[in-house]
DNA sequence: CGCCTAATAT
DNA sequence: AATATTAGGC
């Protein structure tokens, strides 16, 4: 049966009219299920539909299969009983009706059976008896399949579903009268829908919705690949709102035609915050991950001149899981889309931060000012303020000036230098190597690191030890510009301790005693470190007079950093070593 | 004006 | 907790 255009237009009440194939040996059981499907009370509000589903019942597997293959009837979804007593028990159907989203049901609740069903392609396993609640959301599988199956293998029966849903959503979008939350959410969704071609390619990439989600939430997609991006904003919000908010996440993989791999832009996550909602009015949140997003949010218009013309290009780094994504979290309340969206919160994901760091390093310490960084980052929508704010924090961390809260627990030698130094950042009462260490590791600039949700700043007190160009450079004294002018002389790491996973990254300095025995400075005399101003002065002098020998405590810059600095200053020709003519 | 920093707000 | 915003100084 083929749906005509008229049929489609009539199908405004989707999922009413869902055609269900029911494979059930027991007639009585079949009748019960059928009755429930046909008389579905959908949430008691949107529609009460006398004939919610059109059910065709079969009691034999082969019959059902031939009904499908005959093409005389078109189904959207199948509910198939796993039977141990007869025939192939439903698995034959399952394997031969791949195009049809199939829900397996059984009295047998054994995990193996369930597992087998899912493994063979069932979209869901439902335990019998089938309640109305369990059946209520079966249509979601249909929509899911319709939108996520490869277009080429999309069965004819599901195409109308897709078109119908698309058309439904767009109808509402076009309705300017309704600036309701729902319509705006749908607008977002339909934009995703418009772009579904690319994402359709990964057929089973997105888990199907599952029946137990009886809340309003409709999970269109739940992309495991974007976990690292998503947990930043949605995790927080959904946590705050407990069960009152829903979270819809979508991802689409459109490549922006204009962006070449070299031009790939950074990921940025913007969160539009709720403006004036009371706890009772908590509305839903929809989070979209898109590669191209209309920035309808001019904020203060700092760098976003025309909100609606702003498109965001995104990097899509294929060799890693650093998909170029833009996430816009919308706490859509009663605020207008173009109206008063004021607060965009930039989520400084590791990727975005990496771009930031890159820009800063490219500019060099003296040139790294917000406006230039912003320029270099080429992240549209990002404002100078955003950058400035981030830069502020970046600098603070570079100088090991921890916010007071972070400093509080560093309760010893509060006024001595050591508290600001990484080596003393560990709690002093951990005086041996058994101290508990954080399970994760700071990851500044670790490109494409899959460490989802990790704070890019690292845990307080566990600063960054990596010394690659992309990472933070450890600087023991405030004001020391180790990036360009070398790093402080550190003692060599002790022999690596087997079974101590972090020893590689946390050399030697696990406690003050270790420091005292290995550090080249006078022992047990942190109080003897020069005053901050003195250090500053020394460093400044070293910077301004690079021809002079470096003071104790500083080591020369690495050749790489020198080359980088030279090239930054436009000097590309370096005379060979021997030719020292001056 | 833009930048920097610290404090404070969200 | 992470960012944004603000204020005051340069």
From TrEMBL:
GO terms for cellular component: nucleus. One of its GO terms (molecular function) is transcription cis-regulatory region binding. It is found in: Nucleus. PROSITE patterns: HTH_MYB, RESPONSE_REGULATORY. Residues 340-399 form the HTH myb-type domain. The keyword Transport does not apply. Pfam families: Myb_DNA-binding. Keywords: DNA-binding, Nucleus, Transcription, Transcription regulation, Two-component regulatory system. Residues 172-266 are annotated as: Disordered. The keyword Transcription applies. One of its GO terms (biological process) is positive regulation of DNA-templated transcription. Residues 19-143 form the Response regulatory domain. Residues 250-263 have a biased composition (Polar residues). It comes from the Eukaryota. Transmembrane segments: none annotated. Residues 178-199, 237-247 have a biased composition (Basic and acidic residues). Binds the target DNA as a monomer. This is Two-component response regulator-like APRR2 isoform D. It comes from Glycine soja (Wild soybean).
């Amino acid at each position: 049966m083929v749906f005509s255009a008229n049929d489609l237009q009539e199908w405004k009440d989707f999922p009413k009219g869902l055609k269900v194939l029911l494979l059930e040996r027991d007639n009585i059981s079949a009748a019960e299920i059928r009755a429930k499907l046909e008389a579905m009370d959908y949430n008691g509000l949107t529609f009460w539909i006398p004939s919610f589903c059109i059910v065709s019942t079969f009691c034999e597997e082969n019959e059902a299969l031939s009904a499908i293959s005959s093409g005389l009837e078109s189904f959207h979804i199948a509910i198939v009983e796993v039977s141990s007593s007869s025939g192939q028990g439903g698995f034959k159907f399952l394997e031969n009706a791949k195009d049809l989203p199939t829900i397996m049901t059984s009295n047998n609740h054994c995990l193996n059976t369930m597992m087998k069903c899912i493994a063979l392609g069932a979209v869901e396993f439902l335990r019998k008896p089938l309640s109305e609640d369990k059946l209520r959301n079966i249509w979601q599988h249909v929509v899911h399949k319709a939108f996520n199956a490869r277009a080429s293998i999309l069965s004819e029966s599901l195409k109308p579903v897709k078109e119908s849903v698309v058309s439904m959503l767009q109808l509402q979008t076009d309705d300017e009268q309704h600036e309701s939350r729902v319509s705006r959410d749908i607008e977002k969704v339909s934009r995703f829908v418009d772009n579904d071609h690319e994402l359709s390619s990964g057929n089973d990439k997105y888990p199907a919705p599952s029946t137990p989600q009886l809340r309003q939430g409709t999970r269109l997609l739940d992309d495991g690949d974007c976990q690292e991006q998503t947990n930043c904003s949605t995790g927080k919000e959904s946590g705050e709102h407990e069960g009152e908010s829903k979270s819809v996440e979508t991802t689409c993989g459109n490549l922006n035609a204009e962006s070449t791999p070299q031009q790939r832009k950074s990921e940025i996550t913007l969160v539009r915050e709720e403006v004036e909602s009371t706890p009772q009015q908590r509305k839903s949140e929809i989070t979209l991950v898109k590669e191209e997003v209309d920035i309808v949010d001019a904020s203060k218009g700092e760098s976003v001149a025309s909100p609606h013309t702003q498109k965001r290009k995104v990097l899509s780094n294929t060799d890693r899981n650093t998909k170029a994504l833009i996430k816009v979290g919308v706490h859509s309340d009663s605020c207008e889309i173009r109206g008063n969206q004021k607060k965009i919160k930039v989520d400084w994901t590791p990727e975005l931060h990496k771009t930031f760091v890159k820009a800063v390093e490219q500019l060099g310490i003296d040139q790294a000012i917000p406006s230039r960084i912003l320029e270099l980052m080429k992240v549209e929508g990002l404002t100078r303020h955003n950058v400035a704010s981030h830069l502020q924090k970046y600098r603070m961390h570079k100088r090991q000036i921890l916010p007071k809260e972070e400093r509080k627990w560093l309760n010893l030698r509060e006024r001595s230098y050591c508290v600001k130094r990484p080596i003393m950042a560990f709690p002093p009462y951990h005086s041996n190597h058994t101290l508990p260490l954080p399970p994760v590791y700071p990851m500044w600039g670790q490109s494409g690191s899959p460490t989802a949700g990790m704070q890019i700043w690292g845990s307080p007190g566990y600063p960054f030890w990596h010394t690659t160009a992309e990472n933070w450079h450890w600087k023991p004294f405030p004001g020391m510009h180790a990036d360009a002018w070398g790093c402080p002389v550190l003692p060599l790491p002790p022999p690596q301790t087997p079974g101590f996973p972090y020893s590689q990254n946390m050399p030697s300095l696990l406690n003050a005693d270790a420091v005292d025995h290995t550090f080249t400075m006078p022992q047990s005399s942190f109080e003897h470190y020069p005053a901050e101003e003195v250090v500053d002065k020394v460093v400044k002098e070293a910077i301004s007079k690079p021809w002079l020998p470096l003071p104790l405590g500083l080591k020369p810059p690495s050749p790489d950093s020198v080359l980088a600095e030279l090239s930054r200053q436009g000097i590309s020709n370096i005379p060979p070593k021997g030719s020292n003519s001056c």
